[in-house]
Amino acid sequence: MELPAVKNILDANWDWRLPVNIEDIATKLNIKVASINYFNPEHENFKGLSGLAKINDQGQRVIYCNSVESLNRQRFTLAHELGHHALGHVEPGKHMQRVDVPAAFNSNTADWEEREANNFAAQILMPLDAIKTMLFAKGISNIKELARIFQVSEAAMYYRLKNLGYLTL
Ligand SMILES: [Zn+2]
Fold first, then answer.
1. pLDDT tens, 15-35?
2. Number of compact structural domains in the chain
3. 134, 148 contact by CB (below 8 A)
4. CATH number at residue 108
């Protein structure tokens, strides 16, 4: 099911270019994007994480990504953490921080909010209208090619197409 939050954010902040510039969208939503830096003592607790979403002491929403991981991975992490912010999983006075170990991105994770953030990430990086354009207007259906165009992993593209019911195999 497509999340209304994704459509609203894309409608207001996406320039229709591919790949979706997820960092630009986060910036437009006034969310700061930073890298986990193992040499920064303040990041000591971030070791082993793929990413986290937090509201800092100044009330600023921030996303941290692990810059050691692959570019596709980082884009998905950023989109996932953006989901935690946009879907209310991180809220002032309630949940100030949400941390993600690599397993959080497993599609079988039992945590409902993690699954929702993963759906958010897939949908914002692979917008439904853009997928339809590629498949039905441009006739591009090769998963490898689509993954390259949207700058996501082939696995992520496979699951997106499968969830949309566009895979017949
Ligand atoms: Zn998460």
1. 999 999 999 999 999 999 999
2. 1
3. no
4. 1.10.10
